[in-house]
Amino acid sequence: MVAVAATEDVLIQRPSAFRRLLRRKGAVVGLVVVVVFVTIALLAPWLAPYDPIATNFLLVRKAPSALHWLGTDEIGRDLASRLIYGARASLQAGVISVMIAIAFGVPLGLLSGYSKGWVDSLMMRIVDAFLACPFLILAIAMAAFLGPSLTNAMIAIGLTQMPIFVRLIRGQVLAVTVEDYVEAARALGNPHLRIAVRHVLPNIVAPVLVQATLAIAQATLAEAALSFLGLGQQPPEPSWGSMLNVARQFISQAPWMAWWPGLAIATVVLAFNLLGDGLRDALDPKEV
Amino acid sequence: MLTYIIRRILISIPTIVFVSIVVFGLQLLLPGDPALALAGEERDPQLIAELRRIYHLDQPIWRQYLIWVGNVLQGNLGESIRLKMPVGDLVTAKLPVTMQLASMAILIATCVGIPMGIVSAVKKETILDYGANVVALSGISVPSFWLGIMMILLFSVNLGWLPASGFVKPSESLSQNLKTMIMPAFVLSSVTTAIFMRHTRSAMLAVLRSDYVRTARAKGLREPRVIFRHALRNAIIPVVTLGAIQLGELMSGAVLTEQIFTIPGFGKLIVDAVFNRDYAVVQGVVLCTATGFIFLNLCADLIYFLVNPRMRG
Q1: pLDDT tens, position by position, A255-264
Q2: Would the CB atoms of B290 and A273 count as touching at under 8 Å?
């Protein structure tokens, strides 16, 4: 009885995952930076001082000034405005590609882990094959075959990330399906689909959330890389990767063109990595 | 031991088969008629019919796959439409350049990442630990292509110490070769350095808490001997196997690095092929990289088996 009371005490005192997340300085910094960039992306039309695609040949490659805080590019476009609008492409690509990966990865992982047997073996061999292809090379190849555009880059990144989610969810499902409550649900005669969706899925959300946060960081980097190579966002629409690609050609004449987009990518990716690390610790059941 | 090696090799075979299906399946992503995509601007019906015949596009998909796999097994990865050369020859010509770059990067990552991980674990929660963690987090967050551009700006444009781009074969001039490769290798190594640091740190922290390290300290052994003779020898095992896997990842990272520094390697080959719609080259590069990656994973497992006495026991 004393032991039960003590356990209840611990359970009552254990702070919520969000509170535990807020205790981690790195995660809080990450969360704040992510919120700031998402706000910038959402409010881009109101925040951007100029039209991001309006050219001005009198302002070609101007250094940062009071009129153009971050300078101008090779055809006189305002870099601050392009950077603000570029946040849309980068964050959109990061989030949507991970959503694609989850949309396919979760059902396939559930199917693989829940069905076991030859279905599981077959799916795991396919996952192994995808994971054997280095991430960026596969994404480049897919984007190349689909054709260069931001939408296709997001599809390519999403499909390339999907196997990671399949494997993660399958592992979690295998661990959860041996739990007593799943056995009980089975004994009560619940159909497989109901058990998978109502009893298994809610118990594997935490690791998926952590992986999704870290995957957004990777997807943002991948989108920037694809746009840098000319396979993502197409001109004249701005994206941080394509801005860097152009900046490379003017590195000695206008180095400021390269500073800001790279700094923006690094900051967002770092923020998602910090947030993902923090979430992993906060959602770890061993952490009290 | 032989049984383990054979079993491990046999497990790799279905993965390679599925990789070949994935690589072949890439062409199914082509919107519309693949023959039209291959023809590019040409819309001559005769040429399109000829392309359909050459690439067996008039055959059912499963037969197309079997023909392709049959050719691959005979070492025929197809022909580059633009360069009019066998893809196998192109890959063989470009691979040594990327291998040199990847090897130099892994050497830098080993020399920087592992000592940083050791210091970070031994001096846990000190300024050195925090500093090493910041470097590691930056390594995985800063895009390599931006780091490359910034290094060109500093070392080539401002200081004039190193060439901004280009490649000299080691057989022509080793010193010039190293001069052109050191900056790209450093850029390519940034992620691997961070990964090595993080893994070494966590492995060292786990080992430093173990009983045998406590016993070694209780026996009065000096701290450097405890760290290097007792702790590091065990902590380094997972990092060694990670090294083999990272070599495969570096091949992927080389795509961007070679593009920035105009190095004529494997990565530049695939990017040029993408823009020239040279699909056979794209498929050939992906297939070779994936097969190499599987082989490196196999090596990593075997190294782990050989260096870990508990596995052999």
Answers
A1: 999 999 999 9
A2: no
Which chain A residues are within 8 Å of B18, Cβ to Cβ?
A: 125-126, 128-129
Structure confidence by residue, pLDDT tens digits, B224-246: 888 888 888 888 877 877 777 78
Question: What distance in Å separates the CA atoms of residue A109 and residue B239, rounded to the nearest whole number?
Answer: 29
All residues of chain A having their beta carbon less than 8 Å from the beta carbon of residue B15 are: 125, 128-129, 132
Q: How far apart are CA A61 and CA A257, in angstroms?
A: 8
* Cα–chain center distance at B26: 21
The confidence band for B8, taking pLDDT boundaries of 50, 70 and 90, is confident
- Using an 8 Å CB-CB cutoff, list chain A residues near B157: 251-252, 255
Q: Which of A29, A128, A151, A155 to mutate to test the interface with B (most CBs of B within 10 A)?
A: A128
pTM of the model: 0.87
Residues 6+ apart with CB under 8 A from A209: A279, A283
Q: How confident is the model at residue B303 (pLDDT cuts 50, 70, 90)?
A: confident
- pLDDT band with cut points at 50, 70 and 90 for residue B97: very high
Can you list the domains of chain A with their CATH numbers?
Answer: 16-47+105-282 (1.10.3720.10)
Predicted confidence (pLDDT) per residue in A35-81, tens digit? 999 999 999 999 999 999 998 889 899 999 999 999 999 999 999 99
Task: Report how far residue B95's alpha carbon sits from residue B107's, in angstroms, rounded to the nearest whole number.
Answer: 18
Chain B residue nearest residue A133, CA to CA: B290
Chain A hits for B31, CB-CB cut-off 8 Å, are 146-147
A34 closest CA partner among A275, A278, A211, A279: A275
Give the count of beta carbons closer than 10 Å to the beta carbon of residue A54: 12
